[in-house]
Structure formats: C-alpha cells, structure tokens
Specification:
This protein is mostly helical. The protein is about 70% helix and about 5% strand. It is built from five helices and three strands. A three-stranded antiparallel β-sheet has the order 1-3-2. Strand 2 and strand 3 form a beta hairpin.
Length: about 130
C-alpha cells in the first residue's frame, strides 16, 4: 500500500468494508476520493474521515449525523465542530446508558427464567 494514497481496493481492505459500502459513502458525500479516469485514490484526509465514520458508526451515530458533523468543520471550523461533537456525544452516551440498563434487565430476566427451568427440570423424574 502506498503511504500517500490508497486505491479503492486498498481502502476496502484497510477498513474491512465492502466496495458497496465505500461507494455509498462517496455517494452520500462522506468521502471524496481523487479520481483518475475510473480509478479512485484516497489520501490522508479520506483515510482520516473513514476512521471517523467507522468510529461514529460504532458509537451508534447515523450516517447523516456523521455527515453533518464533518460538514461543520469545513463550514465553521474546529471550535464549532467540537461543540457539536460534545452535544452529540452527550446524547449518545445517554442512549448507550439506556441500552446497557435494558440489556442488564433482559439478562436478569433470562437468568431468572433459566433458574426456574432448571428447578422444574430437577423436579421431573429421570428417564
């Protein structure tokens, strides 16, 4: 792989994404590779953006939220972008906390049902 630019195939391999995903990110203007004929090349800016996109997806942000956040930097600069990031992060942290609570409750319910089933099984005669 080149240090300065990655081909389409190299970009897919580096980030473990499908060609369809990469093309879609271009289509919705999250990425803007350099084009030479039909070939696409991704420089450091696009690699950094892809890292942010995938990190944002991992945290549960929508592609539109990520796109809007990336646009803020270009339009209004770092300070505004960081302020927007803090608001998004605070909202998502709250959502993740609710999901954790829901998962913990579901886990407790499943453990209780499992224990009930185990007790019921113990009462049955052996075959």
């Amino acid at each position: 792989m080149s240090d300065t630019r990655l081909s389409f195939k190299e970009m897919c391999a580096k980030f473990d994404v499908t060609p369809r995903t990469l093309r879609y990110y271009e289509y919705i203007e999250l990425l803007q590779p350099e084009k030479e004929g039909r070939a696409r090349f991704y420089g450091p800016r696009e690699v950094a953006r892809m890292t942010l996109i995938l990190r944002g997806r991992r945290f549960g942000f929508s592609l539109e939220e990520i796109r809007q956040w990336l646009l803020i930097y270009r339009q209004k600069g770092t300070r505004t972008q960081l302020e927007a990031w803090l608001q998004l992060a605070d909202r998502q942290l709250g959502a993740l906390e609710r999901q954790i609570e829901d998962l913990q409750a579901a886990r407790a319910d499943l453990q209780a049902l499992r224990e009930t089933a185990r007790e019921e099984l113990a009462k049955l005669p052996s075959e």
